[in-house]
Amino acid sequence: MKEEALNSAQLYQMVELISKEKNINPQVIVKALEEAMATAAKKYYNTQEDLRGRFSRETGLVEVYSVKTVVEDVEDEDLQISLEEAREIDESFEVNDEIEIPMDTSELGRIAAQTVKQIIIQKVREAERKIIYAEFINKVGTMVNGVLKRFERDDMILDLGKTEALLPAKKISRHESFKVGDRIRCVIHKVHESAAKGPQVVVSRTDTEFVTKLFETEIPEIFDGTVLVKKVVREPGERSKVAVSSMDKNVDPVGACVGMKGNRINAIIRELRGEKIDIVQWSSDITVFAANALSPARPTRVRIIDEDRKSLEVVVDNSQLSLAIGKGGQNVHLATDLVEWNISIKSEEEKRQEMEDDMRRLAVLNTSVRQLQGLEGSIVEDLISSGIHTIGELIELEETELMALPGVDSQTGERIIRAVEDLMAPFMENSKESAAKESAAGESQAKEREDHKEGEND
Prior knowledge:
By secondary structure, the chain is an alpha/beta fold.
């Protein structure tokens, strides 16, 4: 009895020790013990019976029972027992009652011990993962500090204290490198509810949220809510654009972020390993916001082309064109993402040329139809008699309307259309080139935004 009492104390102490060490409810471990012992018994006796384990704190043993349903006629001896047999155990049993019959587990020995150990380890791991998930799922987007523990191929495993985190190679910029033992700041990117192996917590240094958290850390006015970070866009390791606004008219949001002699922004740039950062004054006026977003370029004017399609035209000095576009279109792409409007950039020279073309086109449209080449005078006179005096009036006609004019049959109509096309050809070519450029720019910007979103979601 003393030995049993000792075993009882030791076993429950072990349960309590594991529960405290892993921060797991003792009942989770007890249930694992019960399930493990029932599984071991079922495996050892190779039975189809419904076995149930029950931990006895008094004896320190996990007793196993065969659970059977009381019936009039037994059809499955593994799961059923006759009413007559049940009443030999206890006269109070009735049909459909559940009876637990103790099993002899003394012969289980080593097999039971191994099975119990495996299942307890599995259950403890499951419980640990649930605890980690519950703790970190609400921390997605928050800043954490981890110590680089080891490398797994190109990926890194960080020690966060309570758990390990995965920092994938694609979640750091190409300019960054770390060694084991380095303390690394990052944000929680996602938390897996369960994972067969490896860390559940995935962290990142490329998310836009990482830049936001760095600003909150380094700039008191952002931390206390005086200055707001409205939006961040970035190409990790290359350039970020941060739109900020102030809740206090006496506080300059851009100046607050830069700091005295640039000390605040320089601290963030150092953390990002030299990534360029443009701090942009946010504005509810989209034309003002777009002009700010193209920093360091200084546009001369911004015009809304199509409000429904969110299309803007920005004109810059000839010397500012390459700066506004940026290397590989980087500056205009980021500005487009920041303002969420499509931006078409033109130099003053390009805009002047476009205006001259428009004026020449307008002059042609006001030209008399008598200037059309290759048409007999009678055809021209028929047009004038029908009230068509200028090229512009002629162009406005639908083809069916043209064919309905007096003296104009299908063959004559085709000749008139060709004559107009020949006259307008130079302007049509310029228009097509301009449309193609704008379409290509729009598609490129849309693809950039889509690629950026996919990268953040990985």
